[in-house]
């Protein structure tokens, strides 16, 4: 199938497809591409995962550092989440300081994990007021064919769930598993050809409008939302998306829990 | 989201510490034309929040490579002044401000008729002079008033309000103390004439029922704020 | 009145006006625009002021931090003065790192206040060698229609004179008034159409040449001078300016002292 | 170069702690096509090193001022992922990475037929996912495979290997522990068909005799690596 | 300005610790042509200050957007070398250097006949190799000599000197120890042929009378420095 | 002699000269330009040198700071080497963050000195785990007519050999000479017109290909190598260069040792 490269023509083409309820790759509106999850793939990370969704490939790696707790929270460690999309992952990415897009990407994934409360920062305290663990989750894109958000979110939580706190290496006790309470997961939707679709490809993103990211916890609670890009949507459109996200996060959670 | 459930922020009658009911807004004041050298401007006081917004343009976009052949580009700068917070805010690059600038731009681009001004640029500058909770809502709302003050055609104004949760109770428009103990925050950007959305963020923990309540509070509050915005734009100062 | 927008024509126009001893807004050579001063306008600042000179509007806010005194000055706190002119204040300002112009602006206002000695840095010491107050004066432009220098200088000293040291919030004693000994004030002059004028507007700045900034203390002592931009001036031109500055700073000081 | 001579890294029979002889290489695995959206790509595992390389181009070089009228420009980004090292590597500017990017570019420009693509750009992205000793060699070698995978014409592949010295004995291809106690490191970039060089660095302390021994080890090792590269490019995965 | 009035820097006969009278200058040495690859250059030693200035241009100004249609642009870089001060000066961005670069540029633009070279650029590089008090004066003075050495037409040279106050006494050309205890500093940039000014700064505390005295010292000193500048430009080294 | 300014013509010209075994300035392939070395030239530096090779002029200055030793090396001080090539030294240099070229320049000179072991970092310890000296060698270019590498390397080692540790000024004992064991020296070779030459001028660099830098110690041991720029060379070309470098570093070392 030949797909127009000029954004304007691509937009028109996507709208025609949408009118016939079709997508570029023959998926249905709410279908995902093939999803593959591997863990323990990075020898130098204390926890790691590789996620592939179609031709989108990402890694997540967990590292630990010792930090001094903040004065007003002497019994808490910290969680830091950083997303880098370097030129490796696509011809549109350039080296240099992070763009507004990649700052948004990192912060949205970070909030989904952080706000779910799955990392109990109190459990990271070593000596109150003096020493605590800082968990650093680094998200790294290898190939961007669309929907980096969901790929990062899945890789991130899987890497955290595998992570071993390197107590011995830092001389503060034995190695131990990082406690992770719950599996927050993100589902992302792009408006393409006038209607929302799940798990958009890079070309659908290119010829589409706004996107909505929903992070849900084990019990279906909402932990994070984000609308990005130019576009207008209605309450009923949102309710339809939310309905799909409730189902789909359950499916992915089951896959992860049987890894 | 702090989430310290042991501090009581709402009494048995559902009244909040500042005397508001669950769905009530803080006091709001809007004034236009406050930056004389700008093409449009707005000052908005919302509780102890204060934002000043100036609009420059439509003007020639330069350098050329940022020009779009078939529409204007919209540039949005959201920034917190160093004296706007209890602990001084250091000037300079800040990831939070960068993200808020971006989602505010995404929201405004959804209503401004950019295609009327090819090759030009509209600059929107949002400065938070005093910050309580909810500065991004104040900034976005004030920006849409300032754009109207500059005579820039839009399909609708944007009203941005947030609801949240404290002590497991959903309430509208958290003030700073409530926010410190808050368990969730749901800011939305609403087109008052259609009820459609152009801006949405959320973080914290809300069950599906709580989420629907917060959503409804925001929809109701948007109409009230809209009245104040219209008043400010069509005559005396809004309040 | 129609004013040319092209700098070259504007310059010619300003020279013609100067030949008739006139200005764009019908002021005399040494006249000021309307001056309004408000204080205690910023709820989160420990001291604040808003100054309006014609269509030029600025804020000043004072904040405090605890610092460790420098090794060679264990009994001294510090004063820091920072001027930001962000895109809010005019179409010519761009976001990003500070331009040479705004660095000059901040440093000249800073020197006027600092060199007058009105802030006794010894009085800011809390525990010698360990803790001292750092006073931070932030100058912020809302609308630039010319002469930001004087507006900043007035707002700055008024904000300092209102400032309360937040001892309680920082757990180091009670709140107390910041001691300010004196009221240093700046007067700025631009060469427009071949002769110096006081309190130039943005357009006069645009079509003018060099500017001179003079900061004088309560007793008429000189605390700071700065010549900016391309231009040549004579000793007698300077003496005339200095004479006006001696009078005008007295007038403004009286207004401030009765606020 | 640490140079702590009191730790024994080589036994009396000249065998190294991981069982290798002085001139032996660590295990190597090469795979192409690992970045589906790129024009060419390569994944190379070498001991516990792992590099991923993607190629984009030849494509239009922009901004225009970087274009060359008579040839393509080659841009090389060498970077270590934050999780590639025992202590987390902070993202951002890094003088070591900048230098390695430059010398890698210098090496690749010596073999790529840039003059075939005037005014265009070829982007080479080298990411170290896991680092042992010798990441610059892995990166350069993998980059030349990825360029071949992208169909970019070259006069030859580049094979990069390093030899060094531990316990006063010259050995080939130091692993991480050897490197920690190593007294010298000599990485070279060799054209396998001619034995010519396009890349050379060295630091530490080598007598002229030791230096010649290290040089010869590298030349020998290059042929072995070259076989694996060819296999990866012409059929099954190299190993 | 330190202002520690209890250290005596001037004796009862008005003589300073280094033997100078109140209006005397430190020793000055000027040499041109010290940067062989530049279009003009100057080395100036003034007390323990040492500045080297190079001039490049007039040359094509690029990128194009910095060109002026009716005149040359003048770019000035003032910088202190890391080893120029007692405590090492860290390289990189520095607000003080940025301001001095700007006021030096403002001063030189007042005398250079920029309109003779439309669309071109003249680059002035001032490096302080050794710093005592008064580096901005040394830099500006040396820059005007270097511009003359480069054959760039000017209406006049610029002589920059400073006077100040120690122990409540006004003196000319403070050295480092005097500056440490100094109570004021008045640097000026003077056109020696007309007595006009192109540069003026001041900080500290001077009464109107003290101020006039400092002004006069500078005017007198300027003539003396001017003689040395002329000598350096017309024959043997100035001293 | 008229030399073409266009790089392409310059390259052709250099190749013709090379065919006749000539150079632009009539030197032989392995000849150096005139070399002048001065020391103790910078009043504020604790050790300094000025080196002139033809029209290339550089300074080196040594400063000292007190540092806290790294946790895993409590008995060691540090050596830092920084090279700045500012606009002063040539029309091609621009202000701003260091280019890849100047980063390479600094790192190559640094490695030559560091890897020779001539600075015994253990001798820089003042109080184990608490205080140690950091030696900072700043290399500064005044005029670049080619071969900054060798000029920096010579100036650097001479400045170090003159350096006095300012114990008194820092209140940690008496002033003392910095111990420097050995005189590592660099020789640089550029391929010009198809063959390598020693000590290339700026124009030879401009019209040439790759360069090779060799740093050798007192006993002829190799401490650092670097190949820069696009170009291919053979083992026998390298052996010829190495042979010359062994002789030439001995000559320069003798000059330095009799300063």
Q: What's this entry about, in short?
A:
Chain A is an alpha+beta fold.
Mind explaining what this structure looks like?
The complex is a heterohexamer, with three copies of chain A (259 residues) and three copies of chain B (239 residues). Chain A is of the alpha+beta class and 259 residues long. Chain A has one domain (5-257): Ribosomal Protein S5, domain 2, CATH 3.30.230. In chain A, 28% of the residues lie in helices and 29% in strands. Chain A contains five helices and twelve strands. Chain A has helices spanning 7-19, 100-115, 148-162, 202-206, 235-257; strands spanning 35-39, 47-53, 56-67, 78-84, 125-127, 131-143, 164-165, 176-177, 185-192, 195-198, 211-216, 222-228. In chain A, strands 1, 2, 3, 4, 5 and 6 form a six-stranded mixed beta sheet that branches. A four-stranded antiparallel beta sheet of chain A has the order 10-9-11-12. In chain A, strand 9 (185-192) and strand 10 form a beta hairpin. In chain A, helix 2 crosses helix 3. The mean pLDDT of chain A is 95. Chain B is α+β, with helices and mostly antiparallel strands and 239 residues long. Chain B has a single domain (28-231), classed as GHMP Kinase, N-terminal domain (Ribosomal Protein S5, domain 2, 2-Layer Sandwich), CATH 3.30.230. Chain B contains four helices and nine strands; from the N terminus they run ββββαβαββαββα. Chain B has helices at 95-109, 135-149, 176-180, 208-234; strands at 28-32, 40-46, 49-60, 73-80, 120-130, 159-166, 169-172, 184-190, 197-206. In chain B, strands 1-2-3-5-4 form a five-stranded mixed beta sheet. In chain B, strands 7-6-8-9 form a four-stranded antiparallel beta sheet. The longest helix of chain B is centred in the C-terminal third of the chain and has 27 residues, at 208-234. The radius of gyration of chain B is 18 Å and the shape is globular. The D-F interface holds D 1, 95-96, 98-99, 101-103, 106, 109-111, 186, 191, 195-208, 211, 215, 219 and F 100-101, 103-104, 106-107, 111, 114-117, 210, 212, 217, 219-235, 238, 242, 246. Strand 9 of chain D pairs antiparallel with strand 12 (222-228) of chain F, so a sheet runs across the interface.
